[in-house]
Amino acid sequence: MTAGTSPVPDLTDPRSFLPEPPYQVWAALRRSGRLHYQEREGAPGFHSVTRYRDIDRVLRDSAGFSSEWGMTLDSALGVHDPAAGKMIELTDPPRHQRLRRLVSGGLNRSVARTMDGVLRERVQRWVEQAVADGETDFVRSVSERVPAAATGLLLGLPEREWDRLADRAGRALCGSLAVDDERVGDLDARRHSTATANGQLLVHLAGLLDHAELAEEGLIRRLLDAELDGDRLTREEVLLNCLNLAIAGNETTKNATTGGLLAFAGNPEQWQRLRRRPELLDQAVEEVLRYTTPPLHFTRTVLEPRTVAGTALRPGELLCLWMPSANRDEEVFPDPDDFRIERNPNPHLAFTSGKHFCLGAPLARLEIRLVLEALLTHVESIHLLGAPVRRPTNLVTAYASLPVALRRCTRS
């Protein structure tokens, strides 16, 4: 199968996303102006959607496209997801509004502002230690620690639970199969790996719902006690939405931060520009989000007849929305493959759009900003010591390690 002159790889195989996502394949598919259809053995085939305008339209059309039949290629198997109607991300309107209203109070901008001071000192300390070490694996020393702390604080967990929760969240999303394991290309093996990790994470979280050390102001307690017009979340709904927050909160921010440092290392003039003009920090955060786009795809199932990119779609058909492709669409972003911290406007879809826009966006932006602020304080230049190691997955741009040397500012 080809898009123009570019062969289209098997987009269900995580190995097709190594050593980096197939940006050139997506670019060719965008230029074709059509959807690309791929058959799957033992699972429904799917249409790849690659243009910004088409992806944004599908995300905003909850009457025509459903998330309740699975939101990823490995989970969209033609059956209703058992968490539909209970987890925000897997629920369509009108039930979605109820869940979002009950959950969103624990994830508003004021929560991010409150966590700023708590996180800032920790991030500064971790970055300062990474600089003092001279050579470091940035994933282990900084980028995985920040969202682990942020998610733990958000949920109200005792600190000793943070790293274990983050590790299980990562396995639940990416599985535990190594890149050289032949089973990584097998759907059943991947599903078994992630299902096992999801089960472990659910059991772990379920055991924490009544933990005596839960912080009163933490999200778990707030959701258990939340009431709106006499309506309350069930314990299962609290558990499933905390599961979703634990997974998304840990993996997406970790990989955006890692990818952002990699982008600055590959574009040193952008780092020096940010050092000279720290007032560009907010724009830099948005460009990191656009350029890295941690979520690789989401799926939607057609509910009503629709036409997308000239393709007539029938109810039951499956669409795969390739998010990094939308964020590198030439129709929206001039020179989309360039990393430019002054890019403005920057209407990226890293947090999606429409009714499922990411509830954790304010906290994710805060975490990335705090890391960049700490780096600006302590780091003059960033040097790669080797190629980044990525985890084999087509769901997120996941980093296992990033070896770097962070050269200390003379003023830090």
Count every helix, treating DSSP H or I runs of 4 or more residues as helices.
14
Number of strands: 14
Query: Mean of residue pLDDT?
Result: 94
Shape call: globular
Radius of gyration: 21 Å
SSE class:
alpha+beta
Strand order of the largest sheet: 3-4-10-7-5
Quote the beta fraction. Answer: 5-15%
Helical fraction: 40-55%
Q: What are the segments in which pLDDT stays under 50 over at least 5 consecutive residues?
A: none
Q: State the end-to-end distance.
A: 54 Å
What is the chain-wise order of helices and strands?
Answer: EEHEEHEHHEHHHHHHHHEEEEHHEEEE
Report the major sheet: 5 strands, mixed
Question: What report would you give on this structure?
Answer:
There is one protein chain. 46% of the residues lie in helices and 12% in strands. With 412 residues, the protein is α+β, with helices and mostly antiparallel strands. It has a five-stranded mixed β-sheet with strand order 3-4-10-7-5. Strands 6-14-11 form a three-stranded antiparallel β-sheet. Helix 4 packs parallel to helix 14, helix 6 packs across helix 7 (162-174) and helix 8 (187-208) crosses helix 10. It is globular, with a radius of gyration of 21 Å.
